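Private note to self, pasted from the team thread so I don't lose it. Backbone tokens:
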């Protein structure tokens, strides 16, 4: 006679699996709960200020800590959130296309002089997609600038201005600052622009000044001359800080006064100019977009200041002499819900990490594997049409909360970036009737992948340029 007990146990086990799979995520996968009402409120519930409020700062254990906020605080009141969300994706797509073009031009050696072609001075980062801001003091005036790890030159709009976009703060007036000095055309600083940025400084109508040109693929630009002035990062003074004084600027820059360049150049970036103070180390924790959220930009490498909830895991920065301004890492794998994915492109080269890109871009073969595994684990939910660069979308308007698979990026040295639950999905429509996996595919297999800021939220990301390593640790972002 057959023992009925094992058969009964098998049936119970199968029933348990079926019940646990009813919401679309199997029980043996790693998952997190996304509360859709809270997610929608965080994204769209706060009332934005119509002015750029000066962020706080403090000094602690030799490090300077600046409060970091989402750029919407400088954009005025947002009337149509659905339109805003959709525009972000369109601009981000244009940004990445322009960035990939610049990367290919650098590698192929086809960078031309500024007098021959209007090309980006920095890395092709499109300012309208840079989403986080800090306040610094330049020449005695508060300036709210966009944080960008993919650009080297820090610049602000200056008086007199031939053409300036609208910003919330008064324009920087170099003539009103007793500490302002023009950078001369024949100086080593002006000549260093060629090596650091791929675009040389040029002598303009005033032969003593060093002119710069930054153009972007959508017609956005800043033109002006290099100058130096006293910079204050919170309570930390930086004398003779070199920056761009923009006299001719146009683009979708929100209400920010300019840009802070945190790239890897050897002379003009903020990191290199403050290396004697901070040792070439900085870190940030990017907050969500809810009204009260704020993160921090920390200049300095004392890890005891961090508020990380997980240990810091480090990975090597991959050297790339042809693209020396960028931060490259070796992506060794991606896991969805604890399932490690297999893709040939993981071993094909470095991936760029950039605070100016919103949505992460993966090689087509890698994205195909990610999409397939995510759909396998997140099944049973109504599909929704794709939008712009996002093609894996759902209609979750009928749900209060959903269980979603975890998303992790794995890097050389066993470092991991654990994507926050709010960074896995992107709300195209605020009622969650169109919510998409916040990852996209590159056009071609040989293009360079990018880790965007949307997947970096609520993470402490540490850039150590001295030791050429980058660290990740989970952190609940808060300036206080």
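Design output:
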């Amino acid at each position: 006679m057959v023992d009925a007990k094992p058969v009964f146990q098998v049936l119970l086990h199968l029933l348990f699996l079926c019940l646990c799979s009813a919401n679309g995520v199997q029980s043996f996968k790693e998952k997190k709960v996304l509360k859709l009402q809270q997610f929608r409120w965080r994204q769209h519930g706060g009332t934005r200020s119509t002015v750029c409020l000066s962020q706080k700062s403090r000094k602690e254990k030799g490090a300077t800590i600046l409060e970091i906020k989402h750029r919407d605080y400088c954009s005025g009141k947002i009337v149509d959130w659905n339109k805003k969300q959709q525009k972000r994706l369109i601009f981000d797509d244009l940004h990445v296309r322009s960035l990939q073009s610049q990367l290919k031009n650098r590698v192929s050696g086809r960078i031309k002089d500024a007098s021959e072609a209007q090309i980006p001075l920095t890395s092709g980062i499109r300012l309208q997609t840079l989403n986080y801001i800090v306040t610094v003091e330049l020449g005695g005036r508060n300036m709210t600038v966009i944080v960008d790890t993919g650009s080297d030159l820090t610049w602000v709009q200056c008086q007199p201005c031939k053409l300036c976009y609208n910003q919330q703060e008064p324009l920087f007036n170099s003539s009103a600052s007793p500490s302002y000095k023009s950078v001369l055309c024949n100086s080593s600083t002006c000549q260093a622009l060629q090596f650091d940025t791929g675009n040389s400084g040029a002598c303009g109508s005033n032969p003593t000044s060093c002119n710069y040109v930054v153009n972007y693929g959508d017609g956005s630009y800043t033109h002006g001359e290099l100058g130096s002035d006293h910079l204050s990062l919170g309570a930390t003074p930086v004398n003779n800080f070199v920056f761009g004084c923009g006299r001719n600027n146009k683009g979708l820059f929100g209400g920010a006064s300019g840009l802070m360049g945190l790239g890897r150049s050897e002379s003009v970036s903020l990191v290199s100019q403050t290396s004697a103070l901070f040792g070439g180390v900085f870190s940030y924790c990017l907050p969500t977009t809810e009204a009260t959220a704020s993160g921090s930009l920390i200049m300095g490498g004392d890890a005891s200041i961090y508020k990380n909830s997980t240990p810091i895991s480090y990975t090597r920065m991959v050297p790339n002499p042809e693209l020396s301004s960028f931060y490259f890492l070796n992506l060794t794998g991606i896991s969805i819900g604890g399932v490690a994915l297999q893709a040939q492109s993981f071993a094909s080269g470095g991936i760029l990490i950039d605070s100016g890109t919103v949505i992460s871009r993966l090689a087509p073969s890698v994205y195909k594997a990610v999409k397939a595994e995510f759909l396998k684990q997140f099944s049973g939910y109504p599909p929704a049409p794709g939008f712009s660069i996002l093609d894996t979308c759902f209609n979750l308007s009928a749900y209060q909360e959903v269980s979603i698979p975890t998303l992790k990026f794995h890097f050389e040295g066993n470092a991991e970036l654990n994507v926050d639950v709010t960074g896995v999905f992107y709300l195209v429509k605020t009622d969650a009737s169109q919510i998409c996996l916040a990852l996209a595919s590159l056009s071609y297999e040989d293009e360079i992948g990018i880790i965007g800021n949307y997947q970096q939220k609520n993470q402490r990301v540490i850039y150590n340029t001295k030791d050429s390593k980058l660290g990740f640790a989970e952190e609940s972002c808060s300036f206080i």
